[in-house]
Specification:
The chain is mainly alpha-helical. A 3-stranded antiparallel sheet has the order 1-2-3. The longest helix is centred in the middle third of the chain and has 33 residues. It is globular.
């Protein structure tokens, strides 16, 4: 269940989005669940879609996973709002798309940068971002734990010779 922390953080950020939005329009911030519920439902669906995509992003904290979750959350949230009788004005669609993009993809981008920086500091500054390293492996700036690396079979290498950590793509 390694997707749970990312799902929880994403859900908190969607709730923050709803509170900020209601407060900025002088609406009762306490009614944020009325604004948030379509996006929370779509967020859950987004994580499910990201997990089930063939050739899917490998980890819930990856940028690819975040992009899938963001797209499904925005589109699904807007559709649920309209189906439930609420509105989805163009300005709201634009703001929701931008804010949710910053929230849902932004934290993943910051995490990837921090992981990459930490890896380079451990390696003395010149490490390549897709290099096999001792206990860990860096793949597009994402650190794989020893458990992830142990799951790989020796014959499951990608085109760059680095073992593929996704057991579903073998």
């Amino acid at each position: 269940m390694r997707f749970v922390p990312a799902l929880v953080l994403d859900a908190v950020l969607v709730l923050v989005f709803a509170v900020i939005g209601r407060a900025s329009h002088d609406e009762d911030p306490g009614g944020f669940l009325l604004t948030a519920w379509p996006f929370i439902v779509a967020l859950l669906l987004g994580h499910l879609v990201a997990a089930l995509l063939p050739g899917r992003p490998r980890r819930p904290w990856s940028l690819g996973w975040g992009a899938v979750v963001w797209a499904v959350t925005v589109v699904g949230g807007m559709l649920l709002r309209v189906v439930s009788g609420d509105t989805a004005q163009v300005a709201f669609i634009i703001v929701a798309t931008l804010v949710l993009g910053i929230f849902l993809v932004g934290w993943r981008a910051v995490a990837a940068l921090l992981r990459r920086r930490a890896h380079r500091e451990r390696q003395g500054g010149g490490a390549d971002a897709a290099e096999a390293v001792g206990d860990e492996r860096i793949d597009d700036g994402v650190v794989a734990s020893s458990e992830d690396v142990a799951e790989q079979s020796p014959d499951a290498s990608g085109p760059d010779g680095v073992p593929d950590s996704d057991p579903h793509t073998r």
